[in-house]
Amino acid sequence: MPVAEFGLIERFFRGIGPALDSTVAGIGDDCAVLQPPEGQQLLLTTDTLVEKTHFLPGTDAESLGHKVLAVSLSDLAAMGATPRWAMLALSLPTVSESWLEAFSAGFSLLASRYEVQLVGGDTTRGPLSITVQGIGTSPAGRVLYRSNAKPGDGIYVTGFLGEAGLGLKGCLGKAECSFTMRQRLERPEPRVAVGKILCGLASACIDISDGFAADLGHILESSQVGATVDWNLLPLSAEVRGYLLRSGDVRLPLCAGDDYELCFTVPRERESDLKSRLRSLPCPVTRVGIIGELPGLRFENFNLDEPLSGYEHFS
Ligand code: ADP
Ligand code: MG
Does domain 8-139 have CATH number 3.30.1330.10? Predict the structure, then answer.
């Protein structure tokens, strides 16, 4: 990397997030050196946002800075981890200081809120593409997997479904939507606090990135179970309900991606425990169905002619 660009790293990427005690060496050497707290396991996740595939050309840089980190924090949340570090690989067609400033501000604000330190990365010239690796920790044995849902467990989701999908339709000019829906697309809030509360309580958990039906489907496959979900129980905001009524596009809350809510299962005998633990949280949590033995996903109060699918890049 040319020396001039090293100034960019110093200016825009050094000092993002708190200086953690557990960071032995951050930005500036060939590798970051991290010291996970004793007895904790490391959880690592990587996500890439590519222009036109994951975001629309012209999306503001501050939102991109927020979103690319939020997506990684959401994966860590889904496994109940405490996010601690991030690595950032940027491919940029040109070096625009105003773009970098805004991007860095969006990234930095979220990193500070979740006490995540940016400890390294890579900066290259090329088509606009942003990759973040999120690194978190969990006490050994407290990690939430997808694979442990059992018949009889309740199925829950955080927040509301389909809002990011409606936001995307709004951005594409395919539907009317409020600023709030667009914010849900561009500035998702990772459910880190919920994930931590679920450790030792939920039997399985996943974050909803590709659509509720597809992501719950991953829990079902991993756990080798099935599920019945009641359409009438799905958490839908007034705005999404209004859109469904106007458009008849009932698949939106089931299939649209990018909500970054958590979907999880809880054994029946722990459900009252869940209620009391959730009281302190700002986001709603809704019970939408139940795990069963028969494989597959079934709906009550809902008829679909075609099978539901989530977002797949290579289909
Ligand atoms: P190397 O060539 O040894 O891989 P670089 O010259 O690419 O190192 O990067 C120098 C330092 O700056 C490294 O510590 C690297 O992790 C960090 N760095 C590079 N780009 C970024 C970025 N976009 N965000 C955060 N840190 C970065
Ligand atoms: Mg090197």
Answer: yes
Contact yes or no for 208/215 (Cβ under 8 A): yes
Q: Dihedral through CA 16, CA 119, CA 106, CA 77, nearest 10?
A: -120
Q: Is 122 in the pocket of ligand 1 (CB under 6 A)?
A: yes
Alpha carbon of 286 to those of 63, 172, 302, 304: distances in Å? 28, 30, 18, 23
Query: Does residue 1 have its Cβ closer than 6 Å to ligand 1?
Result: yes
| Mean pLDDT along residues 107-128 | 97
Rounded to the nearest whole angstrom, what is the distance from the C-alpha of residue 5 to the centroid of ligand 2? 15
**Is residue 271 predicted with pLDDT exceeding 60?**
yes
pTM > 0.90 = yes
Superfamily of domain 154-300: PurM-like C-terminal domain (3.90.650.10)
Domain layout of the chain by residue ranges: 8-139, 154-300
Residue type, 204: A
* Among protein residues, the one whose CA lies closest to atom 20 of ligand 1: 122
- Please state the atom number of ligand 1 nearest to the C-alpha of residue 12: 24
